[in-house]
Protein backbone atom coordinates (compact mmCIF):
# COMPACT_ATOMS: atom_id res chain seq x y z
CA UNK A 1 0.00 0.00 0.00
CA UNK A 2 1.60 3.27 -1.05
CA UNK A 3 0.76 6.55 0.61
CA UNK A 4 -0.70 7.82 -2.65
CA UNK A 5 -2.93 4.77 -2.97
CA UNK A 6 -4.11 5.20 0.62
CA UNK A 7 -4.81 8.88 0.06
CA UNK A 8 -6.86 7.99 -3.00
CA UNK A 9 -8.84 5.10 -1.53
CA UNK A 10 -8.60 5.56 2.25
CA UNK A 11 -8.04 1.80 2.44
CA UNK A 12 -4.97 0.00 3.76
CA UNK A 13 -4.42 -3.71 3.13
CA UNK A 14 -2.12 -5.96 5.16
CA UNK A 15 -1.38 -9.04 3.06
CA UNK A 16 0.45 -11.88 4.80
CA UNK A 17 0.12 -14.31 1.88
CA UNK A 18 -1.80 -17.62 1.95
CA UNK A 19 -4.98 -15.61 1.44
CA UNK A 20 -4.57 -14.05 4.85
CA UNK A 21 -5.32 -10.33 4.74
CA UNK A 22 -6.61 -7.49 6.86
CA UNK A 23 -8.21 -4.35 5.42
CA UNK A 24 -8.54 -1.07 7.29
CA UNK A 25 -10.60 1.94 6.24
CA UNK A 26 -9.01 5.17 7.47
CA UNK A 27 -12.55 6.34 8.30
CA UNK A 28 -12.57 5.49 11.98
CA UNK A 29 -9.51 3.23 11.48
CA UNK A 30 -12.23 0.63 11.01
CA UNK A 31 -10.97 -2.87 10.31
CA UNK A 32 -13.46 -3.82 7.57
CA UNK A 33 -12.10 -7.24 6.68
CA UNK A 34 -9.95 -9.97 8.22
CA UNK A 35 -9.57 -13.04 6.00
CA UNK A 36 -7.87 -16.22 7.24
CA UNK A 37 -7.23 -18.69 4.39
CA UNK A 38 -9.63 -16.56 2.39
CA UNK A 39 -12.40 -16.98 5.01
CA UNK A 40 -13.87 -13.64 6.19
CA UNK A 41 -13.97 -13.52 10.02
CA UNK A 42 -15.77 -10.19 10.44
CA UNK A 43 -19.34 -9.12 9.74
CA UNK A 44 -20.01 -5.99 7.67
CA UNK A 45 -23.60 -5.18 6.84
CA UNK A 46 -24.53 -5.23 3.16
CA UNK A 47 -26.14 -1.82 3.88
CA UNK A 48 -23.07 -0.34 5.58
CA UNK A 49 -22.30 3.21 4.54
CA UNK A 50 -18.77 4.10 3.40
CA UNK A 51 -19.51 7.76 2.67
CA UNK A 52 -17.43 8.94 5.61
CA UNK A 53 -20.44 10.51 7.28
CA UNK A 54 -21.36 7.80 9.77
CA UNK A 55 -19.69 4.84 11.41
CA UNK A 56 -19.22 1.79 9.23
CA UNK A 57 -21.80 -0.82 10.28
CA UNK A 58 -19.53 -3.75 10.99
CA UNK A 59 -15.90 -4.79 11.13
CA UNK A 60 -14.15 -3.29 14.15
CA UNK A 61 -15.03 0.38 14.73
CA UNK A 62 -12.84 2.25 17.24
CA UNK A 63 -14.95 3.70 20.07
CA UNK A 64 -13.34 6.72 21.82
CA UNK A 65 -13.61 8.88 23.99
CA UNK A 66 -17.18 7.90 24.88
CA UNK A 67 -19.09 4.61 24.88
CA UNK A 68 -22.84 4.94 24.42
CA UNK A 69 -24.96 8.11 24.26
CA UNK A 70 -22.93 11.36 24.78
CA UNK A 71 -24.31 14.78 25.67
CA UNK A 72 -21.24 16.45 24.06
CA UNK A 73 -21.34 14.68 20.72
CA UNK A 74 -22.09 11.56 18.69
CA UNK A 75 -22.94 8.24 20.32
CA UNK A 76 -19.79 6.16 20.84
CA UNK A 77 -17.63 9.27 20.44
CA UNK A 78 -15.88 10.72 17.38
CA UNK A 79 -12.96 8.33 16.72
CA UNK A 80 -15.00 5.94 14.57
CA UNK A 81 -16.30 8.78 12.35
CA UNK A 82 -13.02 10.64 11.94
CA UNK A 83 -10.32 10.06 9.33
CA UNK A 84 -7.21 8.54 10.91
CA UNK A 85 -3.65 8.91 9.65
CA UNK A 86 -1.50 6.05 8.38
CA UNK A 87 1.73 6.49 10.32
CA UNK A 88 3.50 3.39 9.04
CA UNK A 89 2.42 1.59 5.88
CA UNK A 90 2.09 -2.22 6.07
CA UNK A 91 5.52 -3.74 6.61
CA UNK A 92 6.50 -7.42 6.76
CA UNK A 93 8.32 -8.29 9.99
CA UNK A 94 11.18 -10.76 10.27
CA UNK A 95 8.77 -13.55 11.29
CA UNK A 96 6.44 -13.05 8.34
CA UNK A 97 3.80 -11.09 10.23
CA UNK A 98 2.60 -7.81 8.73
CA UNK A 99 2.32 -4.64 10.80
CA UNK A 100 0.81 -1.20 10.16
CA UNK A 101 0.45 1.79 12.47
CA UNK A 102 -2.37 4.33 12.50
CA UNK A 103 -2.84 7.45 14.59
CA UNK A 104 -5.42 10.02 15.54
CA UNK A 105 -4.74 13.28 17.32
CA UNK A 106 -6.92 16.16 18.35
CA UNK A 107 -8.02 18.40 15.49
CA UNK A 108 -10.50 21.19 14.88
CA UNK A 109 -13.39 18.71 14.64
CA UNK A 110 -12.55 16.77 17.81
CA UNK A 111 -11.77 19.94 19.78
CA UNK A 112 -15.15 21.37 18.77
CA UNK A 113 -16.72 18.45 20.63
CA UNK A 114 -14.19 17.60 23.36
CA UNK A 115 -11.61 20.22 24.12
CA UNK A 116 -8.59 18.08 25.03
CA UNK A 117 -5.29 17.35 23.34
CA UNK A 118 -4.71 13.66 22.78
CA UNK A 119 -2.79 11.30 20.54
CA UNK A 120 -3.84 7.70 19.85
CA UNK A 121 -1.42 5.22 18.31
CA UNK A 122 -3.07 2.09 16.90
CA UNK A 123 -0.76 -0.73 15.84
CA UNK A 124 -2.20 -3.74 14.00
CA UNK A 125 -0.24 -6.95 13.50
CA UNK A 126 -1.54 -9.69 11.18
CA UNK A 127 -0.27 -13.14 12.12
CA UNK A 128 -1.14 -16.50 10.56
CA UNK A 129 -4.48 -16.96 12.32
CA UNK A 130 -4.39 -13.98 14.67
CA UNK A 131 -4.99 -10.26 14.56
CA UNK A 132 -3.28 -8.17 17.25
CA UNK A 133 -4.38 -4.66 18.27
CA UNK A 134 -2.04 -2.50 20.38
CA UNK A 135 -3.37 0.90 21.41
CA UNK A 136 -1.63 3.79 23.16
CA UNK A 137 -3.51 6.90 24.29
CA UNK A 138 -1.18 9.80 25.19
CA UNK A 139 -2.04 13.02 27.02
CA UNK A 140 0.45 15.68 25.80
CA UNK A 141 -0.99 18.39 28.07
CA UNK A 142 1.23 19.90 30.73
CA UNK A 143 -1.60 20.50 33.18
CA UNK A 144 -4.93 19.02 32.06
CA UNK A 145 -6.10 15.45 32.75
CA UNK A 146 -8.93 13.90 30.81
CA UNK A 147 -11.11 10.82 31.22
CA UNK A 148 -12.29 8.53 28.42
CA UNK A 149 -13.99 5.28 27.49
CA UNK A 150 -12.37 3.16 24.80
CA UNK A 151 -13.69 -0.01 23.14
CA UNK A 152 -13.11 -2.13 20.05
CA UNK A 153 -16.60 -2.68 18.64
CA UNK A 154 -15.89 -6.09 17.08
CA UNK A 155 -18.59 -7.57 14.82
CA UNK A 156 -17.82 -11.28 14.41
CA UNK A 157 -19.26 -13.05 11.38
CA UNK A 158 -21.11 -16.23 12.36
CA UNK A 159 -23.19 -18.78 10.40
CA UNK A 160 -25.95 -18.67 13.05
CA UNK A 161 -25.66 -16.64 16.26
CA UNK A 162 -28.07 -19.05 17.99
CA UNK A 163 -25.36 -21.72 17.82
CA UNK A 164 -22.61 -19.58 19.32
CA UNK A 165 -21.41 -19.97 22.91
CA UNK A 166 -19.35 -17.37 24.78
CA UNK A 167 -17.14 -18.36 27.71
CA UNK A 168 -15.53 -16.20 30.40
CA UNK A 169 -18.59 -14.32 31.68
CA UNK A 170 -19.76 -16.47 34.59
CA UNK A 171 -20.05 -14.62 37.86
CA UNK A 172 -19.57 -11.21 36.23
CA UNK A 173 -22.06 -8.44 36.89
CA UNK A 174 -23.61 -6.89 33.80
CA UNK A 175 -25.74 -3.89 32.91
CA UNK A 176 -28.64 -5.12 30.78
CA UNK A 177 -29.60 -2.40 28.29
CA UNK A 178 -32.62 -4.46 27.23
CA UNK A 179 -33.96 -4.11 30.77
CA UNK A 180 -33.56 -0.37 31.47
CA UNK A 181 -29.91 -0.79 32.42
CA UNK A 182 -30.65 -2.98 35.43
CA UNK A 183 -27.67 -4.75 37.01
CA UNK A 184 -27.58 -8.56 37.07
CA UNK A 185 -25.00 -11.28 37.68
CA UNK A 186 -24.23 -13.92 35.05
CA UNK A 187 -24.86 -17.42 36.36
CA UNK A 188 -24.07 -19.33 33.17
CA UNK A 189 -20.64 -20.81 32.47
CA UNK A 190 -21.42 -20.44 28.76
CA UNK A 191 -23.55 -17.56 27.45
CA UNK A 192 -25.78 -17.98 24.38
CA UNK A 193 -27.73 -15.36 22.42
CA UNK A 194 -31.31 -16.17 21.41
CA UNK A 195 -32.97 -12.74 21.61
CA UNK A 196 -32.12 -9.02 21.52
CA UNK A 197 -28.98 -8.85 23.69
CA UNK A 198 -27.18 -5.73 24.82
CA UNK A 199 -25.08 -6.27 27.94
CA UNK A 200 -22.08 -4.51 29.48
CA UNK A 201 -20.27 -7.21 31.48
CA UNK A 202 -18.00 -5.64 34.09
CA UNK A 203 -14.51 -6.69 35.20
CA UNK A 204 -14.43 -9.70 32.91
CA UNK A 205 -11.48 -12.12 32.62
CA UNK A 206 -8.79 -11.53 30.02
CA UNK A 207 -10.01 -14.36 27.81
CA UNK A 208 -13.25 -15.27 26.04
CA UNK A 209 -13.79 -18.07 23.55
CA UNK A 210 -16.65 -17.78 21.06
CA UNK A 211 -17.66 -21.07 19.43
CA UNK A 212 -19.25 -21.69 16.02
CA UNK A 213 -17.81 -18.70 14.26
CA UNK A 214 -16.96 -18.97 10.56
CA UNK A 215 -16.25 -22.53 9.34
CA UNK A 216 -17.52 -23.86 12.68
CA UNK A 217 -14.27 -22.80 14.33
CA UNK A 218 -13.62 -20.94 17.54
CA UNK A 219 -12.47 -17.39 18.14
CA UNK A 220 -10.33 -16.62 21.17
CA UNK A 221 -10.43 -13.02 22.33
CA UNK A 222 -7.62 -12.05 24.68
CA UNK A 223 -7.62 -8.55 26.16
CA UNK A 224 -5.24 -6.50 28.29
CA UNK A 225 -6.33 -3.36 30.12
CA UNK A 226 -9.84 -3.69 28.72
CA UNK A 227 -11.74 -4.67 31.88
CA UNK A 228 -15.23 -4.89 30.37
CA UNK A 229 -16.91 -6.90 27.62
CA UNK A 230 -20.04 -5.83 25.71
CA UNK A 231 -22.21 -8.51 24.10
CA UNK A 232 -24.65 -7.25 21.47
CA UNK A 233 -27.05 -8.59 18.90
CA UNK A 234 -29.94 -6.30 17.84
CA UNK A 235 -32.23 -9.20 16.84
CA UNK A 236 -35.09 -8.57 14.44
CA UNK A 237 -36.93 -5.51 15.80
CA UNK A 238 -33.86 -3.34 16.32
CA UNK A 239 -32.39 -4.52 13.04
CA UNK A 240 -35.42 -2.94 11.37
CA UNK A 241 -34.69 0.37 13.13
CA UNK A 242 -31.20 0.63 11.61
CA UNK A 243 -31.04 1.94 8.03
CA UNK A 244 -27.54 0.49 7.59
CA UNK A 245 -28.38 -3.00 8.81
CA UNK A 246 -30.43 -5.55 6.85
CA UNK A 247 -33.57 -6.98 8.47
CA UNK A 248 -32.29 -10.49 7.82
CA UNK A 249 -28.67 -10.03 8.93
CA UNK A 250 -28.84 -10.42 12.71
CA UNK A 251 -28.35 -14.24 12.68
CA UNK A 252 -24.96 -13.73 11.01
CA UNK A 253 -23.31 -11.42 13.50
CA UNK A 254 -22.27 -11.32 17.13
CA UNK A 255 -20.61 -8.32 18.77
CA UNK A 256 -18.08 -9.21 21.48
CA UNK A 257 -16.48 -5.91 22.43
CA UNK A 258 -13.49 -5.44 24.70
CA UNK A 259 -13.39 -2.03 26.33
CA UNK A 260 -13.06 0.37 29.22
CA UNK A 261 -16.73 1.17 29.75
CA UNK A 262 -17.89 0.84 33.34
CA UNK A 263 -15.05 2.93 34.75
CA UNK A 264 -13.55 5.61 32.48
CA UNK A 265 -9.76 5.88 32.26
CA UNK A 266 -8.29 8.98 33.91
CA UNK A 267 -5.19 10.10 31.97
CA UNK A 268 -2.92 12.46 33.84
CA UNK A 269 -0.85 15.09 31.99
CA UNK A 270 2.12 13.64 30.13
CA UNK A 271 1.07 10.03 30.67
CA UNK A 272 0.08 7.22 28.34
CA UNK A 273 -2.54 4.47 28.65
CA UNK A 274 -2.02 1.19 26.80
CA UNK A 275 -4.45 -1.59 25.99
CA UNK A 276 -4.37 -4.60 23.67
CA UNK A 277 -6.62 -7.17 22.11
CA UNK A 278 -5.74 -10.41 20.32
CA UNK A 279 -8.24 -12.26 18.14
CA UNK A 280 -7.19 -15.81 17.39
CA UNK A 281 -9.09 -18.25 15.20
CA UNK A 282 -8.61 -21.92 16.06
CA UNK A 283 -10.41 -25.16 15.36
CA UNK A 284 -10.12 -27.39 18.37
CA UNK A 285 -10.33 -26.73 22.14
CA UNK A 286 -7.49 -24.27 22.71
CA UNK A 287 -5.93 -26.22 25.56
CA UNK A 288 -5.93 -29.35 23.43
CA UNK A 289 -4.37 -27.60 20.45
CA UNK A 290 -2.04 -30.28 19.01
O1 LIG B 1 -22.16 -2.05 21.59
C1 LIG B 1 -23.55 -2.17 21.73
C2 LIG B 1 -24.21 -0.83 21.48
O2 LIG B 1 -23.91 0.09 22.48
C3 LIG B 1 -25.71 -1.06 21.33
O3 LIG B 1 -26.43 -0.42 22.37
C4 LIG B 1 -26.03 -0.45 19.96
O4 LIG B 1 -26.37 0.91 20.09
C5 LIG B 1 -24.69 -0.65 19.24
O5 LIG B 1 -23.74 -0.28 20.23
C6 LIG B 1 -24.55 0.09 17.94
O6 LIG B 1 -24.50 1.48 18.15
P1 LIG B 1 -24.45 2.42 16.85
O7 LIG B 1 -24.25 3.81 17.37
O8 LIG B 1 -23.27 1.93 16.01
O9 LIG B 1 -25.74 2.18 16.12
TrEMBL record:
GO CC annotation terms, alphabetical:
cytoplasm
Amino-acid positions noted as binding substrate in the UniProt annotation, renumbered to this chain: 57, 75, 80
UniProt protein name = glucose-6-phosphate 1-epimerase
One GO biological-process annotation of the entry reads: galactose metabolic process
Q: What is the lineage of its organism?
A: Eukaryota, Metazoa, Ecdysozoa, Arthropoda, Hexapoda
Q: Which CDD domains match?
A: D-hex-6-P-epi_like (cd09020)
Its Enzyme Commission number(s) read 5.1.3.15
Q: Which InterPro entries match?
A: Aldose_1/G6P_1-epimerase, G6P_1-epimerase, Gal_mutarotase_sf_dom, GH-type_carb-bd
Give an example GO molecular function: glucose-6-phosphate 1-epimerase activity
What is one Pfam family matched by this protein? Aldose_epim
Q: Which organism is it from?
A: Drosophila virilis (Fruit fly)
What does the protein in this record do? Answer: Mutarotase that catalyzes the interconversion of beta-D-galactose and alpha-D-galactose during galactose metabolism. Beta-D-galactose is metabolized in the liver into glucose 1-phosphate, the primary metabolic fuel, by the action of four enzymes that constitute the Leloir pathway: GALM, GALK1 (galactokinase), GALT (galactose-1-phosphate uridylyltransferase) and GALE (UDP-galactose-4'-epimerase). Involved in the maintenance of the equilibrium between the beta- and alpha-anomers of galactose, therefore ensuring a sufficient supply of the alpha-anomer for GALK1.
Q: Which UniProt keywords apply?
A: Isomerase
Membership in a protein family = Belongs to the glucose-6-phosphate 1-epimerase family.
Catalysis performed (reactions): alpha-D-glucose 6-phosphate = beta-D-glucose 6-phosphate; alpha-D-galactose = beta-D-galactose
Q: Which domain of life, per UniProt?
A: Eukaryota
* Residues at the catalytic site: 153, 257
